[in-house]
Amino acid sequence: YPYAMVLADFVGGDGKLDIAVANSESHTISVYRNLSVAGTFTNSSLLPKSDFPAGTGPRFIDAADVDGDGLIDVVNANLSSSSFSVHRNIAGARFLISPFKNGMVFRFRADALPDSAFVVQISTNLIDWSDVATTTITNFLGASFVDSNAVLPYAFYRLRNP
Question: pTM for the full model?
Answer without folding.
Answer: 0.65
